[in-house]
Design brief:
This protein has helices at 3-32, 42-60, 64-87, 97-107, 115-130, 142-182, 192-204, 220-227, 229-246, 269-285, 308-324; strands at 210-217, 251-256, 259-265, 295-301, 330-332, 335-338. By secondary structure, the chain is α+β, with helices and mostly antiparallel strands. The protein has 2 domains: 3-179, no CATH class; 192-338, 2-Layer Sandwich (Alpha-Beta Plaits), CATH 3.30.70. Helix 3 (64-87) packs parallel to helix 5. The longest helix is centred in the middle third of the chain and has 41 residues, at 142-182. The relative contact order is 0.08.
Length: 339
Amino acid sequence: MTYQTHIRQMLQLPNVLAQCTGMLGWLLSVAINPFLTDGVAIWGWLALGGMVLSCLAMSTARRFVLWRLFALVFVVFEALAFRFQIAGMGEAGYAWMIPIAIIITLGSTILFAQVLDYGIAAGAVWLVLFYGQFDSVSPQTLPLLVAIMVSGMVLGLLLSATFVRIVGSTLQLKESYRLQAETDALTGISNRRALMLDLERVCAEPSPDWYFVMLDIDDFKRINDRFGHDVGDLVLRETAATLSRHFPDGYFGRLGGEEFGVLVKSEGDRELTLRLQGLLDDIRANTQAGSCFSFSAGVTRLAPGSLPSDLFKQADGELYHAKRAGKDRVHYRGAMICG
């Protein structure tokens, strides 16, 4: 899972709740504001409409950059909505500018997945609320106002940086646990669970170019008994490494014991046969384990409506025929294609 996917999944609901809170907060403040004798100008309601639209756009955005952009747009519209409300409050409105700016900037921390985005949004909020208002600030209170603005910005940036770091750490832990759950500890390749997930994904969008290969190391028990389990483990690791070299464009994993599975896309039976023959030759020539070894394999081709259980059964049947026919070979559709 990428950081972008993780952050969107993690923040989807909190973002919507935060945005709805901002919109409802504005409506409630309009309803109970005793200083709005003439109500809010039409521009305030248009800004509320912009908040609604940017919230919807953010929720449905497919591209991560747009998702980030609409978060910024929402905060700007929120600041505009409160600016127009404050404008209708007369002299009493100035006292509310700083509290509102702090509430918006700190409350919007959760909307941003990057500290830079938050910094831009926070700066935009202060600019929208205070643009053109500094002339009414006395020289004596101006330093205090600047100090409050800087303190609010620094606090918001610290919160944003902490939040982003926590989200990133969560992703790292999540990926670490996923890898542990889907990786075979001995060989370092996918385990049965991970390969089954890959197979389910491919079966959901079937293509006639996909093949499933089930292979089994020949006489593996004899290797363990004769040379020891250390050599047997080395044979398994060498098989996994060879699969990695021959099928970098496919999915492969250890199904358990001495069985491996390969899910590979090929332009036809002939191309697959050549690749499997190369794999078989490479395994035969491998001397890293200190003992020559080979494998037998069964192949099946994916068809529309194929289920992982059906593919396992078909490939296992072909593997059985390869073993019965003498091992050290690959069977497909009831006949040997490599040997």
